[in-house]
């Protein structure tokens, strides 16, 4: 990687202040900007700069290019792979003030928003028009549109609507040299060369700063049915999900977790567990009719004999969802985890889960392993507590198991700084060379997020 300035000159900092105002250039107390959500990745950025609009972002990038200063973009800082890790001499460019929300365009079912808008705010804006934003997950109240685009975030509704990439119909971004790309018309049919929005989606801040996006919205339905099932094994979860998917194309979410994780959430946040089971499957459907009795008949016909709980109002729905969504926060109450967000073929999930548990326990029986995730996507989150933040032996073990199952080492959260050593487990050398060629064509000085994605 090309060397950058380690000490920022007063001249450079003054120039930043002239662009955004002194109040939005932090140099002393950088608050939580330097540390990631998990507390595992602690950086040492020299400056945090908070632009208010695209023009200010462009001027900042132009200055950074002139002064050879590396830039780490940051949205809500909810990323879980050390993707906002900044060193001495790096600046963090926070997008939180790019928070404008356009009108919902009901004829195209689209909305344009600034990159700093929170996912929950997009969802709220859509709701008033009988629409929904399909990207949804536990960090909806703090993750930003720009961050979710940069990581191609997944979440609970991917099985029905696809990941963030499938929701982007337009993008605005600032390139490392300060040039602005604006392609926000939202035309559904637009085959005029390379798909730049798609390229920036999942680029983790290594190619430029996403400043705005045009997003597709989907119809929201009147009836939501949420059911928690108790299963005996992961194999039963896979079988139930497969049967349900064949019969119900209105399945929004199929989330699984184990009793140990449910107990942890219950203890940490005082959430009641409706019944004990080895593995839980949380299903959510949305349609224009109430599906509860159809789902029940389906389960009876397919000889499902476990316990079940159906949410009959919003507060019981919230209670069921908390059991799943609070896993991340509950784990953080007992330590700093090593996190993995991996995918394998859905049919391999039971064997894969067993293999991970066995191999981690063989390495150190004292380490604890929590597994939960998005069952229909084959995407499991493995959280290991016990190894120190810098002990990467557990990362090697888990990611090698993923490779043996021909899975992906990142299903949702990206590579960041946490997984860059293992990129070759999921990508061939030719693919990595191509990615590096794209990176150096767009960012020849290597200014953009230098600790992320590539070793
Ligand atoms: P940040 O954490 O600030 O940044 C993430 C990455 O994107 C960094 O590499 C950063 O440099 C880059 N970046 C940020 N903004 C921009 C921008 N405007 N332009 C260019 N690059 C940028 N993720 C999922 O996919 N699915 C889940 O179900 C899910 N659930 C979560 C639940 C919890 C409780 C938490 C804490 C996290 C969860 N995440 C999940 C992870 C995280 O929320 C996502 O990765 C999210 O997309 C990060 O958004 P952010 O705004 O916080 O980005
Ligand atoms: C989820 O699905 C998130 O809840 C976070 O992707 C996963 O905490 C994790 O490991
Ligand atoms: Zn997830």
Short description:
This protein is α+β, with helices and mostly antiparallel strands. It has helices at about 10-20, 55-65, 120-125, 145-150, 160, 195-200, 235-245, 260-270, 290-300, 315-325, 325-330, 350-365, 395-405, 430-440; strands at about 25, 45-50, 70-75, 90-95, 100-105, 110-115, 130, 170-175, 180-185, 210-215, 220, 225-230, 250-260, 280-285, 310, 340-345, 370-375, 380-385.
Features:
single chain, 455 residues, alpha+beta, Uridine Diphospho-n-acetylenolpyruvylglucosamine Reductase, domain 2, Uridine Diphospho-n-acetylenolpyruvylglucosamine Reductase, domain 3, Alpha-Beta Plaits, 4 domains, 5-stranded antiparallel sheet, 14 helices, binds flavin-adenine dinucleotide, binds (2R)-2-hydroxypentanedioic acid, binds zinc ion
- Given helix and strand content, the structural type is alpha+beta
β-strand percent reads 15-25%
Query: Mind telling me which CATH architecture of the largest domain this is?
Result: 2-Layer Sandwich
The pLDDT mean sits at 97
Sheet with most strands: strand arrangement? 15-12-14-13-17-18-16
Written overview of the protein:
With 455 residues, this protein is α+β, with helices and mostly antiparallel strands. The chain folds into 4 domains: 10-97, Uridine Diphospho-n-acetylenolpyruvylglucosamine Reductase, domain 2 (2-Layer Sandwich), CATH 3.30.43.10; 110-219, Uridine Diphospho-n-acetylenolpyruvylglucosamine Reductase, domain 3 (2-Layer Sandwich), CATH 3.30.465; 223-328, Alpha-Beta Plaits; 335-438, Alpha-Beta Plaits (2-Layer Sandwich), CATH 3.30.70.2740. Helix content is 32%, strand content 21%. A 7-stranded antiparallel sheet has the order 15-12-14-13-17-18-16, with helices on both faces. The protein has a 5-stranded antiparallel sheet with strand order 5-6-10-8-9. Strands 1-2-4-3 form a 4-stranded mixed sheet. A hairpin with a 5-residue loop joins strand 8 and strand 9 (180-183). It is globular, with a radius of gyration of 22 Å. The protein binds flavin-adenine dinucleotide, (2R)-2-hydroxypentanedioic acid and zinc ion. The site of flavin-adenine dinucleotide has 37 residues, from strand 3, helix 4, strand 10 and helix 11.
